[in-house]
Amino acid sequence: MVVFYSYGSHFKADKDLGISKCENCNYEAKKLLITEKYKIKLFYVFPLFSKVKNRGIFCTHCGNIEPLSKKEYDEMKAK
Amino acid sequence: MEEIIKQKKGKNNVLFIIIAIIGIIFFASGFSSYNKKEEEKKWSDVTEIGEYSYIDAQYLEGPYVEETAENGTKKEYYLAINQNTVVGCILIKQNSTTEIPIVTSEEEYNNAIAQDPKRMYGYSKNFENEVSKIFIEEINEQLESNEVNFTNLSEYIGKYYLDTTASNEDKGLGAVLMIFGAIMILCLPLSLLKNNKEYKKSQKEILDLKQDGKYDMYDNDINSSNSYTEKKYSTIIGNLNIYNFEKDLLVIPIKKITNVYKCSMENGQLSQRDHICIETNENEIYNIAFKLRDKKDEKFDNLLNQIKQRMVK
Questions:
Q1: Reported ipTM
Q2: Which residues contact A1 (CB under 8 A, 6 or more apart)?
Q3: What is the pTM (predicted TM-score) of this model?
Q4: A61 and chain B: CB distance < 8 Å anywhere?
Q5: How does pLDDT run across B153-191, given as a tens digit for each residue?
Q6: Is the pLDDT of residue B293 over 90?
Q7: For residue B259, which residues of chain A lie inside 8 Å, CB to CB?
Q8: Which of B1, B75, B209, B263 could bond to B277 as cystine, CB 3.0-4.6 Å?
């Protein structure tokens, strides 16, 4: 029997933080509050395993993620 | 600088030599198992299933049973007859040519019995119950009796049948190994050809630089006391320019750089790779030093910091 599975990073944009200057690329760009998860899926659909890899502020210009702790992330999301 | 360009062009040779050596090992072991001579047995000496053996017979009679494999291949069971005696049962692919002739008419029968017996090779196998059942019915019908049954069928057609359709698995594996080995060996001359082409290209690159009068200037800059070299990313930072040898020679004047940063985006999408993005006052963007995004790399960070430090603020 052939079991199809997939794995990799998945991004979830949790909140739009508006436009602000990125410390990494120095551009005024849109920022998103994101969680990056590592997922293993069965038949490309059914999640088998999921682990939060990163939480932070994502710059849509350079792709830089400014990491946040769980507490900081929750506070920012609740604002 | 000449040395750096030449070294870079020939760096894959060692890898391809290793691949070619592995390829030779694969090819040799595949060749030996492909050409391994199997011990063949006379059909009368066969005592168990899976033995490579042969049947000598004047003609084949049948087909008695037809079966269709999972892949749709049709196979037929024949009785091998020699001197009017059944010597065994043979399984062949439908419509295949056989060394022992199949007899379907009286003329073919007369021709066959006038000739010497022919030989066919295969592997001994056990009869499936369904096949045995059909043979019992057929033979009983021919004998017009009920004397043949599961217990005494082997006395009429033998305990096993000779499967001429079964392949030697070692031979198949040997062939696969040989093909893999040959592909791996082929990589070496292809790589040498590619490197030779790139070497010629680099020679031309150097010649062009010399003709433009830029060669000495670049060479002095690269060899200056405070130049920074990052071999992994084929990049040298001189006093005047950044030199990148990853593909063709890329020269970025340091005084023109307006912005430098680590970028994880490619074509507007988040990529699995990071690279260093260098922007100049002429609105040019250079992307160099690619690495996997999840991989921490001190050399990458050092190169980025060195460029940032030397950038004219």
A1: 0.80
A2: none
A3: 0.56
A4: yes
A5: 888 888 888 888 876 666 778 888 889 899 888 888 888
A6: no
A7: 25-26
A8: B263
Give the whole-angstrom CA distance, residue B304 versus residue A63: 16
Which of B83, B58, B62, B211 has its CA nearest to residue B138? B62
Mean pLDDT calculated for residue range B2-12: 63
Q: Which amino acid is at B112?
A: A
Q: What is the CATH number of domain B215-310?
A: 2.30.29.30
Q: What is the DSSP string of B181-219?
A: HHHHHHHHHHHHHHHHHHHHHHHHHHHHHHHHT-HHHHH
Are residues A63 and B259, on separate chains, in Cβ contact within 8 Å? no
Buried b / exposed e over B145-157, threshold 16 CB at 10 Å, is eeebeeeebeeeb
What is the distance in angstroms between the Cα of B258 and the nearest Cα belonging to chain A? 11
Q: Tell me whether A26 touches chain B (CB under 8 Å).
A: yes
Residue B170 has a pLDDT of: 66
Q: Please give the residue of chain A at the shortest CA–CA distance from B275.
A: A62
Domain definitions of chain A by residue range: 9-78
Distance separating alpha carbons of residues A40 and A6, to the nearest angstrom = 6
φ and ψ of B149, to 5 deg = -140, -175
Q: Please report which confidence band the pLDDT of residue A2 belongs to, taking 50, 70 and 90 as the band edges.
A: very low
Contact indicator for B45, B214 with CB cutoff of 8 Å: no
B292 contacts in A (CB within 8 Å)?
A: none
What's the token pair of residue B17? 């030599």
Query: With an 8 Å Cβ cutoff, are B261 and A62 in contact?
Result: yes
Report yes or no: B259 at the A interface, CB cutoff 8 Å. Answer: yes
A26:B261 CB<8 A: yes
Residue B167 tokens, joined: 């392949």
